[in-house]
Every structure is written in structure tokens, then in C-alpha cells.
Amino acid sequence: MPEHRLKSLTPLGHDKPKTTTHGPITITEIVDVALASLAIRRDQAKAFTMAATAIGIPLPEPGHYKANSTYRAFWLGPEQWMVEAPFASHEDIVAVLRPAFGATASITEQTDAWVRFDVVGSDLPTMFERLCAFDLRRHGSGSSTRTMIEHLGCYIVIHSDEKFSVIGPRSSAHSIDHALLTAAKSAF
Amino acid sequence: MIINHPLLGPRDAQEFVYLGDASLIGRPDGMTEGAVDAFHDYLYLRDNPAGEHRELWYHEQGDRSWLVVTRNTVTHEVVSVEIARDVARKMGRSK
Amino acid sequence: MTQIRRISGGRIDRSKTLNFTFDGKAYSGHPGDTLASALLANGVQLMGRSFKYHRPRGPIASGSEEPNALVELRNGARQEPNTRATVAELFEGLEAKSQNRWPSLSFDAMSINDRLSSFLTAGFYYKTFMWPASLWEKLYEPLIRHAAGLGSLSKQDDPDSYDKGFLHCDLLVIGAGPSGLAAALTAGRAGARVILADEDFTFGGRLNAETLAIGSDSGADWAVKTAAELVTLPNVRLMSRTTILGAFDHGIYSAVERVSDHLAVPMDGKPRQILWRIYSKRAILTAGAIERPIAFENNDRPGIMLAGALRAYANRWGVAVGDRLAVFTNNDDGVRSALDLQAKGINVEALIDTRANAATVNGLRHIRGGEVVNSSGRLGLTSITVRMANGGTDIIPVNALGVSGGWNPNLNIASHQRGRPVWDDAIAAFVPGADGPAGLSAAGAASGAFSTHAALQTGTMEAVKALAALGIAAKPIEIPKAEDAPVSITPIWYVRSGKGRAWIDQQNDVTVKDVKLAHQENFRSVEHLKRYTTLGMATDQGKTSNILGLAIMAELTGKPIPDTGTTIYRPPYTPVAMGALGGRSRGEHFKPTRLTPSHKWATEQGAIFVEVGMWLRTQWVPKPGETTWRQSVDREVSATRQSVGICDVTTLGKIDIQGTDAGLFLDRVYANTFSTLGFGKVRYGLMLREDGIVMDDGTTARLGEHEYVMTTTTANAVPVFRHLEYCRQVLWPDLDVQLISTTEAWAQYSVAGPNARKLLEKLVDQDISNEAFPYMACGEISVCGGLRARLFRISFSGELAYEIAVPTRYGDAMIRALVEAGQEFDAVVYGTEALGVMRVEKGHVAGNELNGQSTALNMGLGKMVSKKKDSIGMVLSQREGLNQDDGLRLVGVKPVDPSKLLTAGSHFIAHGKSTVAAHDDGWLTSVVFSPNLGHSIALGYLKNGSARLGERIRTINLLAKTEVEVEIVSPHFIDPEGERLRA
Predict the structure, then answer these.
(1) Does residue B84 sit at the C interface (CB-CB below 8 Å)?
(2) What is the ipTM of this complex?
(3) What pLDDT, in 10s, does the model give residues C590-622?
């Protein structure tokens, strides 16, 4: 990336990501992840899958999340995924992915469209059942879905029993942060 | 209400937006003779059954799939849920 | 005061004492007490005044069905009216007050109503307050409002928070009495996900109020043991203090959990209550049964209760409501109550049994074939009058009377989806019918299975059946030995005697006479009976009274009860605090907000924000010395037109459209053509609904061969995206086009004004001269030494203008860089008001014109609708009705007298025509003050408007009472040739 003189802010409007702890729960704003949406162009499924395999992008089933060494991905909708990569090496993520996929995919930068909070702690379902209708206790590690949290469409990624990610619209970062903390206080 | 999403399983209807009669899938061709009449019937003439009704729902707070939900308007029972794109293709819609 | 009525036993913790007050007087009780049990233990029977006649009343029940003992709890902002003392859990320092009395509970001036009762019978509202009509607003309504209602609100903000949440289970068990516990245990042991909810703060239901054994344990101990096993099962969730409020479609139940109601103040961060939405695959209603009274003259005195309640107060709470009791019954369970009370050492003076042939009960005075015909005592019961089988009467001094008219299965929830209860002669009560909520069955007393054994048995078997339907094999639990007595009852609803009032519904002061009056006046269906007499309304919803009312109506009409029918219940089961329904959506967090990338900067500048959907946008940015919004807005507009202004336009929807058919797709969704748009170019697009009405407008830029980015209006970003997905998935499923929203990914600023290019040249790394980057060009550029950005040369203001977009994380830095670079040009940051002024000056349509009723033709954009291709709305936009020559057309409007201000929403009425709808020629859609022209200007829809330029007409606003003469002009007030745009 060329040097420029503009300074970035986190979705919550600070220089550094915010971390909040309440009881057994820690909520951390995550900013070191680049995101791009990846959609299959018509009749390109085979070539698309080969390209993804070649560069190491997992293509999880509906309702799931999968991680490889550099790339992680969650399912967005039919024939569409969200790809995660380290921000430091993938700030212009589309420029990195485009050569790998060529005309097989529609690729769109999504890095700054979202705010991501990682929530770590024990018994997360007890906190999250105050936030969304998704049946968290029925869906284990590797599940991912979009659902409503405080009227906002957010993705939830279940990494493990003790770590969830919430990925929501960036402009509502404050509202989501407040909802998470309120739920943590209500539950614990 | 619960809608059993074909890909994602049971979901609260709060996540969806309702459009209306699934007959909307059969949009006439606007460039043919008599298109005004065809569009009038398409847009304004609807059955209003007391019983099973096929309707379009959109998973707005989910995966953004359009679905065809067959619902009993008397009992609210959801009889079947299909991906609208598959239904449209079966009806011969393409480009 | 000592607890003079406290006796031994009960499930209270006597090792701790809780102090509380009632009407300012200090009392004490124990953990495990309700407010009602503690007051009764202290010898207090009088707890309230009735709604209409202000009769002295005490509790008649020991649970949530209580109609009388409504009190105000706590004080200050936490004051809560109309809570039932029978379910209010006692805590240290509880303050309670009686209601509906003045000046005091023992002397209530409004009890004069009781003397006027002949004027206040059923339907008195309808009869008394009809005429003269002139008195309604001034006299009757204020009078009724003053007298109506029971408790009083604190009128302060509720200091507590409320939460909501979502739970999932295979089996929901509603009520934790013997059948509920058996059902939960059966399902829990089978590994099913179970939720067992009970409104009480302890499990066991009636087992806590009775002395019957289960196996070798007392019922109450069996409940404790069973709950203890359930707690160890990770698949079972026990929820006490949780009321199931309603049954909804597809196995969804609502519940309220009272997390902190039993505490003086909720613990830090904890909600007062949680409203749960429970998703169940199956549910079992094990809510028990509710005892019903028998009506007789003056049966509403404090001290007269349901027999089961007297028994519960004695067994569960160690309270003898009186020291000289009697029981009045028509069934065996009333006999059991009398024996239980006697066994507690309480003096039972008489057991009055309406059944002449009842088996003799030894050891007490059993008056068979007798009836209680009246009672005495001003503020509490002192004696009852009993009519013997032989017709003689006896006055028996007692200070408490238990009445049992039988038990009604508590089928409330089973009727929430219009499930019709069915009559069961064997128990003389309604039981849940087969048409209740899908997936719900009933067990135990709720299903009419009244014995303890039957409760355990049916609870177990219903659980096995429910799980079998889910493919889960469950083994029935071994049923311990328990009482299995048959029901013996001879129905009687009211005692025929005297002329006094016999009360059916004590909450609404409905008497037997009122039912007779309703019958006489032909309000005979149960639904009419309810509305005419108010029977079964208010907080208890007739849980103890409905059946009496309809049984008496059945008798009057000469029809059997099943033919008379019954009213059905709807949610909520018991009253719910509005706070619980609102949950977290209060105050600042009523709904989520969306903040723009310049929000932090704008806040520092003291900007005024406006809500646009969930967005908070800068409305204007006041400078020191500006005292009115117009000063700020005029300055922002003038400075932009004279030099340069900056505006955050991030909120406009941005949709990334890619695919080999993207151009074709745009041709289909826009009325005008896009497939011909060159790379690096932007075009204005008009989107129609299928009915030919304009849906939205915006610009779409072509960034690559198969890559476009569409902008939508802020308000329509979500609906347009939904519409595009509909077109892509449903209408043309094989088009190669992929969509994703990028609204939030880019911080986008408009830079407008003659110096816009000069300002941007200081920041943009590339050549953006007019030659290199002409009007309607777009492209990927970099700013400030290499940050990736997008530039669009588009204009909403009519000035030389650009929109520049950077990744959102740099949005804050970008607004600061723009402001800094603009200093030498005296650049301003303008808000939505100035934006609005400039677009009206330029004649651009926006929300007020895109009103969901207007066509492209109305907007003067009719030629944009291409008929050479099929697009959404093209065909129906040609309908005759939308293409009348004299139809509405967008026009510009200016006042003939420039000093006159126009009012938005004013209607056009021609000179010489009266101000009636028939002469309506259209209306002003958008009105602004143009600082450039120095007067008010407007856009409007005017009939045949394009042919009326130069005409003078009146604009009239009947609400604002304004009339201004205006001249119709072109909507393009500024730079009609568009020279500035291309400069």
C-alpha cells in the first residue's frame, strides 16, 4: 500500500479497538480483518471452486463458517460467501482476489461495511439468547448465520462454545456495542 | 410464525418481508402485443383463497433468498417452502 | 404488630423476619410469604375497595386469579398500581398501599356509590351518559375519568430496565404442579430439551397448599425432590416466577420472567423483568384448576374466600384467616378443605353442604342440604346466615368463610387461538377442546383430571405422547402412590334468596341481578353478557367469575350450559407491565442509530442532526452568532453557490452490481437505458414500480466492463435492494448478475460549488481537469498520497460538483482533510437543509415528489421512459389514466409578492374559484427559502402545469390559514441551461 497521510478510525470512532469486560464476558472490536464478498458468475461454479481451492479459500455450506490458514469464509446466501483475510496483507483485498478468480466471480470489497465484535467467555448462549432468535444451543462450532440483533441484520459466527463473532453494519457499531454489553450485564 | 427455510431451517417470520401472491413470478413480456391488458391482469387480479395460498417471502434479515411459501390462510399452517429461483426456473423463466 | 393469625407449619422460613408496611402501618412476615399471606397473618383482611361501589374487599384467592386484593406496591418512581397482593412476593422494606379509596380504606367517601347502586347497574354508562350530548365532553367524561381506574401511576420514568430474549425447546411445560413436574421429569429423563415454567416463586403448585401424600413424601416434599432432580438435568430449564402469557402460531409462546420483582431494587445491570419468546415443538398445559365461588347475598365481605384459598393459607403459609371458620360447598373438595382446616387446629364452626345426600362427615357440624343465604359485618365478616334443609335459618358467628362451587380447569392458554372449551358434566366444568393451539395438549387438573394420581399419570403420558411425535422415545416415570378420589359435585351457581346483591364478579362489581337485567334487556349471548355487564373484564379476566355468569344466563334462557357457550381467553394470561413489552427499546435506545463517517467531526462542530430512517444526518452546522436555523442554512447555501461546500452523502444507498448481464439487468430495472453507458461514466436513472409509478431515482456508475455501482435515495436503500433481488431471483433467474450492498463500505462526500475542483485538486493525486474528468465522469483515483478512492462528477445542487468516496475507516480523516483544504476558499460544510434548498432551486425531485403516487410524466421526466425495451413499469406507465393531458406536472412556484412566505402542502386554487376539493388544481410539494433569489420558492404538482407557465394562481393552506398568490414558473430556478455543471 502506498503511504498516505490519512488516519483511520475504528468503527466505534477511536484510534484503537475497544475492549470491554463484564464478568466472564469480554467484547473486543476487531479491525485487523479484510473482507470481500465472493459470488459465482453464471455457469462458472466448477472453475470458481477450483480457483477458490487453489488460493486456499474455503467455501462452507449454508449456515456455516470455515477457516483455512490465510483465508476464512462464511456463507452469505446461495452462491455467495464472505471471505476474511488479514488486513495487513489484504487491505486492497479485491486486487488480491481478482487475479485468482478472473471472470468466474463477482468480488466486492466489504472491509469497511462492517463492524466486528469478538465475544469471548463461558456460557455465551445465556448472553446471546437475550440478543437473537437463532437457536445457539443447537448450532455448534463452525456455524454461522445472519439474524436480527436489535433490529439489525448481523452475522453470528460460532468459533467455539467460548468464542462468537458478531459482524454487523458498521454505521450502527455503537448500537450493537450497547446491545452486547447490555445483554452481558443482564445475563451475568 | 415460523418459516422453514429450505437452506437454513426454521426461522422466525420476523426475519422475512412479505410481498404477495406467488403468481407474480409469471411476469408477462412487456414488448408483446396486448401487454397493457396482460400486465393489468398480472398486477391487479388475484385469487383470495381461504385455504392454501402460495406467496412470496424475502429473507431480508437472513440470506436474502426469495422464497415461495405455501401457507394455509385459515390455519396459518405453512405447508411447504421453496426457493423462489428454483420455482421460477421450473415455470420456464430464464433471462 | 404481631402475626396474630400465624399458626404452625407452612412453607415459610420462620428463621428470618421481613418488615413491611401497608397503608403506612408496620407489619412483619417471613420469606415465602406473599403480601396477602403476610397481611392475613397479621389479621388484616380488608385490602381494597371495589371498582364501582367502593365496597370493602379482601382477597378471595391465593393466586393470580385474585380479583379483589389489588394494591399499589413500592413508592416514588417504582410505584406500581393494580398488583395482586396474592402473588406479590414479600421482601424486606416492601411498601404497599390500598387503592380506590379516599380518604382511607376503612372510611371511603366514594362508598356512597354503594347506596346509589340502583342507578349504577349493568349498562349504566350506556343509559346514563347518553344525552344531552353537550354534557359529554365537559361533564360526563371528566367525571368518569376521575372515578375510573383503581391505582395511580407514579408519572415518573421507570428507573428499571427490561429485557427480552428467545428460548428454544422440544417441550414446553406450562405450570409446575404434580402433572407439570411429572411431564418435565418424563421428558427430561428422555433427554429432550424441556422448559418448565411456573408463575409462582416455588414449584409444586397445589401440592404446596394441600396435605396429600405422594408415595411416602408429602406432596410438597415430592415437588422439592422432583425439582432437585430436574435441576441436575442440563437439558431442562426450570423457570420460576415466569408466566406463560400467550400461545401464538407454530408453537411460539410468550412469557414474562419476573427477575427482580421480589427485590426492593434490581441488582446492578439486571432487568426487572424479561419478556421471553419461546419456540417450542410441543407444549403441555399443566396450569391446574381454579376454584369458583357460589354467589349469595353479601358474599363479598372480607373474610369470605374460596375454600381452597383458606386451605392454602393454612397449609402453605401457616395462616388461619379467622379463628372461627365455616365452609360452604357443593362438592367433596370443599369437604376436604374443611377437614384440612380442622386438622390445623382451627375452629371449624360448620360445614354447609348444598348436597342433602352427601356422605356424613363426622367430627364437625355438617349441615347437609343447607345454604349460606347472607352475611354480616361492616369491614369484615362477623356472621353468616344459613338456611337449613328444613327451611329454618341459623346465624353462625364466624370471621372467615370458605366457599367452594367446584373447580374449573385453567384452560386459558388452550383457547388463545380460538380453541373452544367443551363442557364436561362429570366435573361440571369446561375442559380444553381439541381445536386448541397446534402442538399443545393438556394434562392434570387443566385437562379435568383432578386427582393427584390422575395428575401424575396424565402429565407423564402426555409427555410420552408429545415426545413420540418428535421421534423421541420417553419412558413413563413410575407413578408413586397418590390420592385418586373421584369428583363428586352437584352444581349450584347462586343461592336463591332475598333481594340483596349476590356478587359474581367482584372485580367489576357484577351481581346476579345484573345478569338477570342483561337477560331481560336481551343481551343474552355470552359475548353480549360480557360487554353489557363488564363481567370478566379487567386484571383477572373473569378467572373466578365467568362460569358463574354464563351458568346463570343458561338457567335464565333455559338452555344447557354447553349450548350457551363460553367466552374464550386471549393473551396475556395475566397483566403485563408495558415496560416488559417495550424491553430495551426505550429512550436513546428506542431503535438503533446509524452514524455517518463525519459524525464525530460534526459533533465537535456543534452540528444539528436530523433522523433520516435510522441515520443521524447533519441538518445544519451553526456558526457562532447565528440564532436561527435559517441564518445557518442561508449561509451554507450562499457559500456553496459562491465558492464551495462539502456535504456527507454516505447515507445514499450504494449497490454493487456485477455480472455479464449487469447492463441488461439495469435496462430492465431502470426506465431509461443503461446498457449504452460507457466505462467511467455515470448516468441518472429512474426506477419505476410495475404499476408505472416512480419508485426511486439515483445515479449508476459503470466502473468496469461488468461492474456498476448504483446509488439509491437514503430512504429507499433497503426497499430498492429487496426489489433488485426480486428481479434477479424471481423474474429473471438466469441473468448473470450479482448484488451486494456497499452503502457502509464507503464514506462519500459531495464537494460542490465553483471552487469544487480547485479544492479537490489539492487532495486528489490524479488530473481531474474538465478535460480529463468531464461532467458525469467517474473513476478510481487516490487521495492524499495514495489512499484508494472513487470520484464521481455528479451534482444534486446544480453546481460544479463531485462526490468522492474513501474506505469508511478514513471517512473521519477525509472530512477533516476536505475542510482543511477548503479553508482558502471559505468552504462550508452543509447539511440536509441546505441540500434541500439547492435541489429545489435546481428543480430536482426528492422524497416529497417521489411520493408513491407520481409518474415520470408527472415529474416532467416522461421522455426518460424508454419504450424500446421492456423494463419494470414501462407498460403500465402508458396507461391512459396516467397520461391525461391535464394531469399533474411538476412546476416551479414563486410568490407574486416576494416578501410572502409559501407553506408546503398548500393547494392550488384558481382565482375566482371557491376553496373546495372540486377546484383543487394540485399542491406545493417542497417549499424553501432561496437565499440566492431572496424569496420563498417551491416545487409543486399542478394540473396541466407545463402549459400554465406564467399563470398566477392562489396557494391556500386551510390548516395554516395561509393564502399566497403565486406565479407558475419553470422548476429550474438556477442555471436552467446547466452551464455550471459542465464548467
Answers:
(1) yes
(2) 0.99
(3) 999 999 999 999 999 999 999 999 999 999 999
B88 at C interface, C-beta within 8 A: yes
Parallel, antiparallel, or unpaired: how do β-strands C645-648 and C828-829 relate? parallel
Interface contact A26, partner B, CB < 8 A = no
Pick from C193, C274, C813: CB nearest A6? C813
| Domain spans in chain C, listed from the N-terminal domain onward | 1-155, 162-289+409-469, 293-405, 502-574, 598-650+745-838, 653-741, 884-983
The sign of the torsion formed by the CA atoms of A185, A186, A187, B3 equals negative
Q: What grid cell was written down for A155?
A: 452475522
* Omega cis (within 30) before A86: no
Nearest CA in chain B to A169: B61
Distance from CA of C701 to the nearest CA of A (A): 15
* Among chain B residues, CA nearest to A42: B95
CATH architecture for segment(s) C293-405:
3-Layer(bba) Sandwich (3.50)
pLDDT 10s per residue in chain B (95 long)?
Answer: 999 999 999 999 999 999 999 999 999 999 999 999 999 999 999 999 999 999 999 999 999 999 999 999 999 999 999 999 999 999 999 99
Q: Which fold has domain C502-574?
A: Arc Repressor Mutant, subunit A (1.10.10)
Of C179-188, C530-539, C935-944, the range with the lowest mean pLDDT is C530-539
Contact call for B39 and C735, based on CB within 8 A: no
Tell me the nearest-neighbour CA distance from B79 into chain A, angstroms: 22
- Classify residue B4 by burial, with Cβ atoms within 10 Å: 0-12, 13-18, 19+: middle
Domain C598-650+745-838: CATH superfamily, name plus number: Probable tRNA modification gtpase trme; domain 1 (3.30.1360.120)
What 3-state class would DSSP assign to C145? helix
Amino acid letter for position C706: H
Which CATH number does A33-112 carry? 3.30.70.1520
Tell me, what's the pLDDT at C146? 60
User: What pLDDT, in 10s, does the model give residues C233-259?
Assistant: 999 999 999 999 999 999 999 999 999
C-alpha cell at C757: 475542483
Helix axes C526-533, C512-520, angle to 10 degrees: 120
* CATH top class, domain B2-90: alpha beta
Are A78 and B12 a contacting pair at CB < 8 A? no
Instruction: Identify all chain C residues contacting A48, using CB atoms and an 8 Å cutoff.
Output: none
Q: Do B36 and C718 touch (CB under 8 A)?
A: no
CB contact under 8 A, B61 and A146: yes
Confidence of residue A81 (pLDDT cuts 50, 70, 90): very high
pLDDT tens track for C212-232: 999 999 999 999 999 999 999
Q: How confident is the model at residue A1 (pLDDT cuts 50, 70, 90)?
A: very low
* Inter-chain CB proximity B60 and A75 less than 8 Å: no
- The alpha-carbon gap from C109 to the nearest alpha carbon of chain B, in Å, equals 51
* Inter-chain residue contact C726 with B66, CB threshold 8 Å: yes
Q: Which CATH class is domain C884-983?
A: mainly beta
What does the alpha-carbon distance between residue C278 and residue A124 come to, in Å, rounded to a whole number? 18
3-state SS, residue A76: strand
* C130 confidence band (pLDDT: 50, 70, 90): low
Residues of B in contact with C729 (CB under 8 A): 65-66, 84-85, 88
Domain C162-289+409-469 is classified in which CATH homologous superfamily? Answer: FAD/NAD(P)-binding domain (3.50.50.60)
**Closest-CA residue to A158 (of A143, A172, A148, A170):** A143
Cα distances (angstroms) measured from residue C633 to each of C426, C649, C831:
80, 17, 8
Check if C593 contacts A (Cβ < 8 Å): yes
Give the start-to-end residue ranges of the domains of chain A: 19-31+113-187, 33-112
Chain B residues touching C871 at Cβ < 8 A:
30
The x, y and z cell numbers of residue C229, run together, are: 432432580
Residues of chain C contacting B12 with CB distance shorter than 8 Å: 252, 277, 279
Residue of B nearest to A144 (CA): B8
- In chain C, % of residues over pLDDT 70: 97
Which residues of B fall within a CB distance of 8 Å from A76?
63-64
CATH class of the A19-31+113-187 domain in this structure: alpha beta
